[in-house]
Amino acid sequence: MDIKNLIKKSLGALGAFAFCAAMTIGCKSEPDYKTVRQEVMDLHDKVMGDGEKAVKNRMVLDTLSKVRLKELKQAKPDLDTTEEKNKISLLIAKLNKADDNMMDWMHHFQPDIEGKSNGEAVKYFQAEMIRIKKLDGEYKKALDESDAYLEKFNLKPASAVAEHDHSKH
Predict the structure, then answer these.
(1) Computed from CA positions of residues 30, 106, 104, 43, in that sequence, does the dihedral angle turn out positive or negative?
(2) Which of 77, 94, 111, 139 has the fewest C-beta atoms under 10 angstroms from its C-beta?
(3) Which of 161, 160, 141, 136 shows the shortest CA–CA distance to 48?
(4) Whole-number Å distance between alpha carbons of 145 and 95
(5) Are 85 and 65 in contact (CB under 8 A)?
(6) Residue 22 clears pLDDT 70, i.e. is over it
(7) Residue 27: pLDDT above 90?
(8) Which DSSP state fits 68?
(9) DSSP 8-state class, residue 116
(10) Smallest Cα–Cα separation from 53: which of 98, 109, 7, 116?
(11) What is the C-alpha to C-alpha distance for residues 33 and 24, in angstroms, rounded to an integer?
(12) Greater model confidence, 12 or 63
């Protein structure tokens, strides 16, 4: 075999390789809608856990507002209970808003995509992922704020410590 034929074969093989590589990079395969739907459902499950924590925080905040502030006022006469009740009301409203938005999302979410192509279903579930991530952020913000407020009074939801003790499992 002479050098010209060897170069032609090498260039031909290199060209075929480059073409295959370009096709692989350029033609990303579309994910299966079931995979994307499962990712949405997994995040939904996590956010539902945040919803449970929101209920517990709301209960502690409510008790603080109705009972504990009076006790704290006796120990700290300079405590402005009206201001604290307003802060508590705002925190409860944020927790309620996150819950309401989650309920709205669940009401409108369609896990069964009958009659849609895989591509249409993937787009739908990707859009739902964006929505559920927004809800996750809303819960996180409301929980972080209410946790910080409760810590100010050395309060935590009743079962928060037990929930995070993984040594019991």
Answers:
(1) negative
(2) 77
(3) 136
(4) 10
(5) yes
(6) no
(7) no
(8) I
(9) -
(10) 98
(11) 21
(12) 63
- By C-alpha distance, which of 52, 50, 42 is closest to 129? 42
Interval 31-51 mean pLDDT: 96
pLDDT tens by residue, 69-84: 988 888 889 999 999 9
* 21: pLDDT strictly greater than 90: no
Q: By three-state DSSP, how is residue 31 classified?
A: coil
∠ CA 64-52-151, rounded to 5°: 40
Taking the alpha carbons at both ends of the chain, their separation in whole angstroms is 71
Q: Are 43 and 132 within 8 A, CB to CB? A: yes
Q: Look up residue 114 and give its two tokens.
A: 């009958």
**Cβ atoms within 10 Å, residue 127:** 11
Report the number of secondary-structure helices (H) and strands (E) in the chain: 6, 0
Measured CA to CA, the distance from residue 59 to residue 19 in angstroms comes to 63
Highest mean pLDDT among 111-115, 145-149, 159-163: 145-149
